[in-house]
């Protein structure tokens, strides 16, 4: 199916400036792409995937440069070509689909105006033709109301629809090459599957070549003809998809494949009284009711995973338990005693018992405080320790989260990696010596390997400290790895509940079934099978 | 043609002199001090070194004024408007007082008062602004409306009004200008803090049960510092202008106390005769303003984390 050679990147080196020095980001990667072919580019964050993807357009971000190598697109070296030539290609013959469509659309213009911009500017189509083209592509991307949706503003459509609108926009000039930079990473599994199907169909139909960047192996298995694995700016290996999945040659690739092998052993059902009871809680923001009659229990030494798509009320439940959003009805009990709805009215001991870990470690650690202060403050505040005792406890906490105290105690959050930051926010919660830990999507912003490390750490700490954990996630692989009990939420209600075995063994609740079947699997034929099965049922 | 060349030479000379002063200052401080200060000094840009050198010079002059100045601040030493000579280096003013001595004493009064005023304005404005943002609700509402009310009245008219009511004296002037400038600082620090209070780490601190003082001082203030530092430099210059304006109108620093603002007015007539003496106090203000802003820019760069 592969046509003639379209893109030929040879020995590409890209450097980024740090102070006075140039540090390598991409260290001599070769990449060949034929017409109509889809290449998957995978690796952890910082592997140079996006940088390499952008370099395929002859573009580098501010503060970076292509120091060596050539990027030959259809016979012309883009590195040495004049900027005006490269500008002429972008949007017309090479298009780019960014990770966050919500951040990439201009909120002040209608979708169709933004669609028409590139073809009209490049002189490919007139305005009227461009609009007809937009409607056609919206239809092929299976957007609802293709005639009307273009006349909405970005905030008036959902995230998954925006991502499809953006892909439609990239197709506007019928480009030879599209670069997809993690287009579904920010989406729910149920939405992701629709976007994946739409992208794959349109790429197949129009014979466009594509580079598909992602860190999700199961996704790339559905999309790509070939897979290239990157590690810290170097190529690890490259092979056709089926071959790569069946027999990866390099140890690093195998470690990527083996991730999520972590399985929590089955626990006997808890017999004692629950630590945390959520009883018929309803809550909302103003007149908007978000939670309806939510109830579940949490036992000592057990993990309950709360799953559901975004907007299902998972995080709101966490906020009600923490007291950030007082419940309008129902109550929360800790160790059998009802607690005040608002955290402001809770005594120190109750605040201490429930600790919340936020999704984004970037915003949950004060960038101007050193680790010593971030961890030392709750230690001093709750345990009333001072001076050397605080320091000793902070060091102990750092050892618990597997960070070397001497090298980490005086760092600022900016000097930590994403995984390390999340470990420090975990340590801050542990500093309070809580009984209940609420983890709000704590691994969803992390790479699989790093996330795996955090999950193992949580598991170990839970056994050592006998913690009750409420783990909010939309990733069912994580649920399989760590949960004892599962609560499935939709539209602010609990729709399914039980032990992991109950929820994951058929017969399922219809919504649980939809969630479970939407999780991508490594098998390259998975997407086709799921779509066929769904079409057959419909 | 020659005139242009002469000008170019002057300008080039001024730049070279400034760079040399900055470089020399940086080298000296680096040798004298040790530890982290020395490292910060060695890496600072030339413009910041120049600014620091100028500020240091002003501080020395202000502190040692009685010993440096050849004549007294209020002493009438000769005829009116004497030209520059070896006794009166910069001539005399409209009452026959020595310009050079008054320029030196002026550093003491003008800089000291401007600094005190700006510091007061920042202390009050930032404390209230951050508190309003952290507390929200009616506290924020009341404070913000009071500030709106004060800002609705033109600053100069309000200060004239207040000074007339309270009586013109230096403490009163400091209080009045600080009050008016604090409203601007309040709005800025509240706006900056609004973005900080929604961060998860502030939520974490609240959930821990921390009090308002800790949240404002340890969680919000360090993250609001960069824009506040930048504003400090700008505000310092505005305060200078306010003091000069009030002095010009007779409600500021009272004669015969030397102050750069009123010195411009006193000798303004000389401009008509092509004498640059009246520009010297103005130049002293301008130089300090530039110097302060150089240092502030550098600090801003460091505080905002744009290190390279």
From TrEMBL, chain A:
<keyword id="KW-0997">Cell inner membrane</keyword>
<dbReference type="GO" id="GO:0016887">
    <property type="term" value="F:ATP hydrolysis activity"/>
</dbReference>
<keyword id="KW-1003">Cell membrane</keyword>
<keyword id="KW-1278">Translocase</keyword>
<protein>
    <submittedName>
        <fullName>Peptide ABC transporter, ATP-binding protein</fullName>
    </submittedName>
</protein>
<dbReference type="GO" id="GO:0005524">
    <property type="term" value="F:ATP binding"/>
</dbReference>
<dbReference type="InterPro" id="IPR017871">
    <property type="entry name" value="ABC_transporter-like_CS"/>
</dbReference>
<feature type="domain" description="ABC transporter">
    <location>
        <begin position="276"/>
        <end position="516"/>
    </location>
</feature>
<dbReference type="Pfam" id="PF08352">
    <property type="entry name" value="oligo_HPY"/>
</dbReference>
<dbReference type="InterPro" id="IPR050388">
    <property type="entry name" value="ABC_Ni/Peptide_Import"/>
</dbReference>
<feature type="domain" description="ABC transporter">
    <location>
        <begin position="7"/>
        <end position="257"/>
    </location>
</feature>
<dbReference type="InterPro" id="IPR013563">
    <property type="entry name" value="Oligopep_ABC_C"/>
</dbReference>
<dbReference type="Pfam" id="PF00005">
    <property type="entry name" value="ABC_tran"/>
</dbReference>
<keyword id="KW-0067">ATP-binding</keyword>
<keyword id="KW-0547">Nucleotide-binding</keyword>
<dbReference type="InterPro" id="IPR003593">
    <property type="entry name" value="AAA+_ATPase"/>
</dbReference>
<dbReference type="InterPro" id="IPR003439">
    <property type="entry name" value="ABC_transporter-like_ATP-bd"/>
</dbReference>
<keyword id="KW-0472">Membrane</keyword>
<dbReference type="GO" id="GO:0015833">
    <property type="term" value="P:peptide transport"/>
</dbReference>
<dbReference type="GO" id="GO:0005886">
    <property type="term" value="C:plasma membrane"/>
</dbReference>
<comment type="similarity">
    <text>Belongs to the ABC transporter superfamily.</text>
</comment>
<dbReference type="InterPro" id="IPR027417">
    <property type="entry name" value="P-loop_NTPase"/>
</dbReference>
TrEMBL record, chain B:
<dbReference type="InterPro" id="IPR000515">
    <property type="entry name" value="MetI-like"/>
</dbReference>
<feature type="transmembrane region" description="Helical">
    <location>
        <begin position="273"/>
        <end position="296"/>
    </location>
</feature>
<dbReference type="Pfam" id="PF00528">
    <property type="entry name" value="BPD_transp_1"/>
</dbReference>
<keyword id="KW-0472">Membrane</keyword>
<feature type="transmembrane region" description="Helical">
    <location>
        <begin position="44"/>
        <end position="65"/>
    </location>
</feature>
<dbReference type="InterPro" id="IPR035906">
    <property type="entry name" value="MetI-like_sf"/>
</dbReference>
<feature type="transmembrane region" description="Helical">
    <location>
        <begin position="232"/>
        <end position="253"/>
    </location>
</feature>
<feature type="domain" description="ABC transmembrane type-1">
    <location>
        <begin position="107"/>
        <end position="300"/>
    </location>
</feature>
<protein>
    <submittedName>
        <fullName>Peptide ABC transporter, permease protein</fullName>
    </submittedName>
</protein>
<feature type="transmembrane region" description="Helical">
    <location>
        <begin position="151"/>
        <end position="180"/>
    </location>
</feature>
<dbReference type="GO" id="GO:0005886">
    <property type="term" value="C:plasma membrane"/>
</dbReference>
<keyword id="KW-0813">Transport</keyword>
<keyword id="KW-1133">Transmembrane helix</keyword>
<keyword id="KW-1003">Cell membrane</keyword>
<keyword id="KW-0812">Transmembrane</keyword>
<comment type="similarity">
    <text>Belongs to the binding-protein-dependent transport system permease family.</text>
</comment>
<dbReference type="GO" id="GO:0055085">
    <property type="term" value="P:transmembrane transport"/>
</dbReference>
<feature type="transmembrane region" description="Helical">
    <location>
        <begin position="111"/>
        <end position="139"/>
    </location>
</feature>
<dbReference type="InterPro" id="IPR050366">
    <property type="entry name" value="BP-dependent_transpt_permease"/>
</dbReference>
């Amino acid at each position: 199916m592969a046509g003639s050679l379209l893109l030929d990147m040879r020995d590409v080196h890209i450097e980024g400036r740090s102070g006075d020095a140039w540090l390598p980001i991409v260290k001599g990667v070769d990449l060949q792409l034929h017409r109509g072919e889809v290449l998957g580019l995978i690796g952890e964050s910082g592997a140079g995937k996006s940088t390499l993807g952008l370099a395929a357009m002859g573009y580098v971000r501010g503060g970076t440069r292509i120091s060596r190598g050539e990027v030959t697109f259809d016979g012309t070296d883009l590195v040495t070509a004049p900027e005006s030539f490269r500008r002429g290609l972008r949007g017309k013959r090479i298009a780019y689909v960014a990770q966050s469509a919500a951040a990439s659309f201009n909120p002040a213009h209608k979708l169709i105006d933004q669609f028409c911009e590139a073809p009209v500017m490049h002189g490919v189509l007139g305005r009227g033709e461009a609009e007809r083209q937009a409607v056609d592509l919206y239809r092929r991307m299976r957007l609802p109301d293709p005639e009307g949706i273009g006349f909405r503003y970005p905030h008036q459509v959902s995230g998954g629809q925006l991502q499809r609108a953006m892909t439609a926009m990239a197709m506007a000039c019928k480009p030879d090459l599209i670069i997809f930079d993690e287009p579904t990473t920010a989406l729910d599994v149920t939405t992701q599957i629709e976007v994946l199907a739409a992208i794959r169909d349109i790429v197949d139909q129009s014979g466009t070549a594509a580079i598909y960047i992602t860190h999700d192996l199961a996704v790339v298995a559905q999309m790509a003809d070939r897979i290239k694995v990157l590690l810290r700016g170097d190529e690890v290996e490259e092979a056709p998809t089926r071959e790569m999945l069946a027999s990866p040659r390099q140890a690093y690739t195998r470690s990527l494949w083996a991730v999520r092998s972590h399985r929590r052993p089955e626990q006997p059902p808890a017999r004692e009284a629950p630590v945390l009871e959520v009883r018929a809680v309803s809550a909302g923001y103003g007149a908007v009711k978000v939670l309806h009659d939510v109830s579940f229990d949490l036992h000592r030494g057990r993990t309950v995973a709360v799953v559901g798509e975004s907007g299902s009320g998972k995080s709101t439940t966490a906020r009600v338990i923490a007291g950030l959003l007082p419940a309008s009805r129902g109550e929360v009990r800790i160790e059998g005693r009802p607690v005040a709805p608002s955290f402001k009215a809770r005594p120190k001991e109750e605040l201490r018992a429930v600790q919340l870990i936020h999704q984004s470690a970037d915003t949950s650690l004060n960038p101007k405080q050193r680790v010593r202060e971030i961890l030392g403050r709750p230690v001093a505040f709750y345990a009333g320790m001072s001076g050397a005792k605080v320091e000793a406890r902070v060091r102990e906490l750092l050892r618990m989260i597997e960070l070397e105290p001497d090298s980490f105690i005086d760092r600022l959050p900016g000097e930590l990696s994403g995984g390390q930051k999340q470990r420090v926010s975990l340590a801050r919660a542990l500093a309070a010596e809580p009984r209940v830990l609420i983890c709000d999507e704590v691994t969803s912003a992390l790479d699989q390997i790093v996330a795996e490390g955090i999950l193992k750490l949580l598991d170990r700490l839970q056994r050592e400290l006998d913690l009750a954990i409420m783990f909010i996630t939309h990733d069912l692989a994580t649920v399989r790895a760590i949960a004892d009990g599962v609560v499935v939420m939709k539209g602010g209600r609990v729709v399914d509940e039980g032990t992991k075995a109950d929820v994951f063994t058929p017969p399922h609740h219809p919504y649980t079934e939809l969630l479970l079947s939407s999780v991508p699997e490594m098998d390259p034929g998975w997407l086709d099978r799921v779509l066929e099965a769904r079409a057959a049922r419909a | 043609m020659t005139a242009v060349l002469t000008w170019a030479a002057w300008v080039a000379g001024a730049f070279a002199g400034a760079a040399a002063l900055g470089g020399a200052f940086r080298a000296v401080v680096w040798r004298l001090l040790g530890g982290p200060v020395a490292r910060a000094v060695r890496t600072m840009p030339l413009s910041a070194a120049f600014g620091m050198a100028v500020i240091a010079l002003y501080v020395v002059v202000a502190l040692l004024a009685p010993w440096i100045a050849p004549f007294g601040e209020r002493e009438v030493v000769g005829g009116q408007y004497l030209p520059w000579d070896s006794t009166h280096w910069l001539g005399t003013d409209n009452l026959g007082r020595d310009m050079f001595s008054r320029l030196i004493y002026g550093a003491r009064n003008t800089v000291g008062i401007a600094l005190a005023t700006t510091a007061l304005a920042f202390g009050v404005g930032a404390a209230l602004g951050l508190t309003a943002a952290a507390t929200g609700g009616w506290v924020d509402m009341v404070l913000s409306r009071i500030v709106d009310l004060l800002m609705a009245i033109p600053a100069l008219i309000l200060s004239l009004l207040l000074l007339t009511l309270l009586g013109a004296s230096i403490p009163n002037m400091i209080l009045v200008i600080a009050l008016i400038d604090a409203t601007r600082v309040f709005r800025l620090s509240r706006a900056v803090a609004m973005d900080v209070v929604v961060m998860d780490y502030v939520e974490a601190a609240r959930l821990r049960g921390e009090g308002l003082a800790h949240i404002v001082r340890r969680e919000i203030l360090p993250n609001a510092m960069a824009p506040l530092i930048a504003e400090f430099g700008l505000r310092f210059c505005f305060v200078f202008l306010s003091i000069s304006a009030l002095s010009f109108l007779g409600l500021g620093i009272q004669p015969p106390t030397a102050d750069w603002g009123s010195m411009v007015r006193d000798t303004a007539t000389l401009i008509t005769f092509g004498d640059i003496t009246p520009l010297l106090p103005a130049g002293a203000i301008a130089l300090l303003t530039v110097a302060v802003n150089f240092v502030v820019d550098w600090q801003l760069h460091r505080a905002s984390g744009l290190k390279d």
